Amino acid sequence: MYQECSQCGVDRFKLFPEDDSSDGAPLIKWERFEYIICGKDSSGKDKKRLQIVQKETKPSEMFRYFKHLLVGFPAHQFRASWQHEQFKQLMANLPLHHACCIHDYSENYSCRYQQEAQSLYFAQNQVSLHVTILFRHANAEKDGVQSTEEEPVVVTEHLLLFRLI
Predict the structure, then answer these.
(1) Rounded to two decimals, what is the model's pTM?
(2) How many CB atoms lie within 10 A of CB 155?
(3) pLDDT of residue 115
């Protein structure tokens, strides 16, 4: 999982000889996400945003970046699978009169018109997205069925809040 033994790990990932960085290797176009500086905040710190950046490099640089991304993937995948399994167990055994609430705050998004150049220079509208998923036991009054210890019925509700900044 942490690729610490000599039998595994990204270093054992071999590339084709054509993918080297020699002078004869062709340039290829590819894209990746990078944080770019897009201004300063009120305290003077750099404001960054994640954006797709186009690259034109030799294949070896793209594969070097790919290998860098792969280093942390097995541990990430293990944690994500474990957390998903724990969540499924919790939902399958949600105690009566309990609820589980998952709240995801998405960062602020700028609202710009595609063809309006002026929006780059004047105040921009931003929106914050707040997504909540609520898992609760069914109630006869509201849902038409009553959840019991013998026959639990878990209802899923989605709440979406948009806040214009």
Answers:
(1) 0.60
(2) 15
(3) 58
